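The records we work with from here on pair a chain with its fold. These numbers are not coordinates but entries in a learned vocabulary of local backbone shapes. To see the layout at work, look at the sequence and tokens printed below.

. . .
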Amino acid sequence: MSNDLKNSPISNKVIFYLEDDKFTSESTTFLLKRIFNNTYSFFNCLDALKAIDEGLIPDIIISDIEMPEMTGLEFLSTIKDRGLNIPSILISAYNDSEYLKSALDIKVEEYIIKPLIDANIFIEKITKILEKSEENRIKNSLHDKSIFTKTDLEGNIVYVSNGFCDLSGYSKEELIGKKHSLVRYPNMPTAIYKNLWKTIQEGKIWKGELRNLTKNGNSYWIEHTISPEFNDEGKIIGFMSVSNDITKKKEFEDKHFELLQAAKHASIEDLIENISHQWRQPLSLISLSAGRLELDLEFKTMNDDEKKELLKKIVSSTQFLSDTIEKFSKFVSNNKILTDINISNEIKYVKEILKNSLEINKINLIDTTDYNESYTLETYENEISQILINLITNAKEAVIKNNINEEKWIKIDLKKDDTKFIITVEDNGGGIKEDIISKIFEPYFTTKFQSQGTGLGLHLTHRIISENLKGNISVSNSDYGAKFIVTIPIVQD
């Protein structure tokens, strides 16, 4: 899979992959996410339907036929019945003529027999279907019901489709002769429009997402493709805009962003509790030392060396408090600049800020990381620490709840091979019940009382790993408890 494909417009298409076999799902999803940024995997068809109902519409569906609760064929038929014309690929372990006939009846683009031996051929099939679908979309966009406009060189609208009028709430008479700024959402950054205008004036195509306002003041999101229109002499004579209404997709993304924020706030509350424990001893030492120095002013009970020693303790304790605040500030920072992060240093950092909480609960954190090895990864500053804090905190709660008599421990290990980093977090908390282990990464799923947790920590962890780091997280029960394995590709582009 070349970088050309990874950087092409189709890399941002929404992919739905349905497979109930865990190993097949994880390995194929990993392959797809290396190419397609918006890949969503599902273990059953009902969850995929729910996502569509919530506004996430895929550009292609890849489904195994044999799925629980609803087969892949039934799922695709349901999609067709809803009037959604989504390209699809069916995958089957059987070369069955009845299956093939049913696939033809619902106009499936490809019917692939397992196993998927050649990954390149698989990706090529998906790519061709997406490219053909995009060509058809552009052709169909010229239909009057599409969201389509034409402007002159100054950006004045000279043609507008009924689809644009329906979406914006303006009539054609109200739009012709006006500029697109009439529907511009006021809080959109002006830099976006400067870049847009500069790009198309240079004879290039601009693609992007813009938020607009309807005539009655409501907002909506559109995905724009704006291209110059040339005359026979190659001179620009105007501009054409073909758009998609992506309002439901943006609402879906906003909903999940709220989930991530709620999970982060829950983590911050845990950290504040840890910090409060860590601060008690140095604050007490500062208070006692200051009290002794104050008494000495009146009763002259100490010599100069004793005073210096007390002052050193005050300075040392103050430095400790400052370092703790710096660690906390790093975690809550919203810094979104990619930087080189040393994963082993992140482990040290997380161990330090969770140290007090683990000691209070008499939990031994066993770290088998080889700190002589290099574990550098380009990512955002607090993502690795967020993952580690969530996994270790989850393990801590399991050990506290379930391990009564044995010595309590949590193990963390970091390794790498030629292609990936591997982080393992294991505990001796007895494991996760088999009937819920497949649900623990779902939002709001928690085995704790509502007052004790939001059920978002592991969901957030899964999102960071799969979407931001293009990696994978799995969980299983070992002989002692739960075992989480995180794999992160070393090269992520």
Observations:
- Residues 247-299 form the longest helix (53 residues).
- The chain has three domains: 3-140, 147-245, 253-489.
- The mean pLDDT is 83.
